[in-house]
Automatic annotation (TrEMBL):
Polar residues bias locations: 10-25
Gene Ontology CC annotations of this record: membrane
Alphabetical UniProt keywords: Membrane, Transmembrane, Transmembrane helix
Ranges that cross the membrane: 59-77, 281-299
Any Pfam family matching the protein: CDP-OH_P_transf
GO biological process, one term: phospholipid biosynthetic process
Region (Disordered): 1-25
Species assigned in the record: Dyadobacter fanqingshengii
Protein name: CDP-alcohol phosphatidyltransferase family protein
InterPro entries linked to this entry: CDP-OH_P_trans, CDP-OH_PTrfase_TM_dom
UniProt-recorded Gene Ontology molecular function terms: phosphotransferase activity, for other substituted phosphate groups
Length: 323
């Protein structure tokens, strides 16, 4: 083989690495398992989708079908069927990674895409919770198993919502509005009010659901809401570099907790319980292990928000007084 032909492959290595890195949100908010496993797979899927012209939203919808199918397979006690479900769930999450990477690669971002992306995981875990409840009843549990099943499901919704919110707040401070998907209920309420139930029924229903979701996030973070309101009022043309650096230093350590209550940790333990044929433990793991981590995350995020609110407010007062 002519050695000259190998040279273009070498020169393309750096641009390829740069393109992959640009498909990520931020190293601050990415989990190591995602960087090592899901993001590289998602990137290859995103490249393929871009090549055939498949947009991000259809990729998200396809992931919903794979994730729900995985949940259904967890109903059966045969381990080999469960393993197939595990593989389907891993592939569903790879697709979920790919849709965001594809959106960033092609600059094909939309509010509907963000809503679908958040809803995808909810569909997966609704199927998983229902399957485990039915499976447990087949194993001799009474209908009371639905109580921890529903409570764990509600816990999961709050955990995922707050982890997603805190990640976007972090991205807002270090990248600005262009690098974040941070929304607020005031703007969403105005968009919702402009839609008609008669002519925009589908979009108005989705807008209502997303508005409620955002209000839930805001209700758990009162100090953060005060900080964001002050920041938007004071820094209308962009955040000063020293504030970005300071916020990142204080807030970055909290990002590991947003990762713990998200997909990877809960799924690793879910797979463990399935291998042990004790799937019901997953509900109690969600409530009594992940919820305390959620509470710790919220309390510390509020402390960080309170610190920066007071700091910016003091600076604003000094500027007004000419100090």
């Amino acid at each position: 083989m002519d050695p000259v032909r190998k040279r273009p492959e070498t020169t393309n290595t750096e641009p390829e690495l740069s393109a992959f890195e640009s498909s990520l949100k931020s190293n601050d908010t990415e989990e190591q398992i995602d960087i090592w496993f899901y993001r590289p797979i998602g990137y290859q899927i995103a490249l393929f989708c871009a090549k055939i012209g498949l947009r991000p939203n259809p990729v998200t919808i396809i992931s919903i079908f794979f994730g729900v199918a995985a949940g259904i397979l967890f109903y059966y006690q045969e381990l080999w069927i469960n393993v197939i479900g595990m593989l389907l769930l891993v592939f569903a999450n790879s697709l979920d990674s790919a849709d965001g990477q594809l959106a960033r690669m092609t600059n094909d971002k939309s509010r509907l895409g963000r809503i679908l992306d958040g809803a995808a995981g909810d569909f997966w875990f609704i199927a998983i919770h229902i399957a485990i409840c039915l499976r447990s009843m087949n194993e001799g549990w009474s209908a009371w198993i639905w109580v921890p099943g529903v409570l764990a499901g509600a816990s999961h919704v709050v955990q995922s919502a707050m982890a997603d919110y805190y990640r976007n707040v972090h991205l807002f401070f270090i990248k600005g509005t262009s690098g974040s998907e941070l929304d607020n209920s005031r703007d969403l309420q105005a968009e919702y009010d402009n839609l008609s139930w008669k002519s925009d029924f589908g979009m108005k229903f989705i807008a209502r659901t997303y508005l409620n979701y955002t209000k839930l996030q805001e209700s758990f973070s009162p100090q953060l809401q005060k900080l964001l309101s002050l920041v938007r009022e004071k820094y209308k043309t962009g955040l000063p570099k020293d504030l970005v650096t300071d916020f990142r230093a204080h807030n970055k350590p909290l990002m590991k907790y947003t990762n713990i209550v998200q997909f990877n940790t809960r799924v690793l333990f879910l797979f463990l319980w399935l291998f042990l044929d004790q799937s019901w433990i997953y509900f109690f793991f969600d409530m009594f292990v992940l919820n305390p981590i959620l509470i710790y995350m919220i309390v510390n995020q509020e402390k960080v928000s309170r610190y920066f609110y007071q700091k910016i407010l003091t600076e604003k007062t000094n500027e007004f007084q000419g100090v």
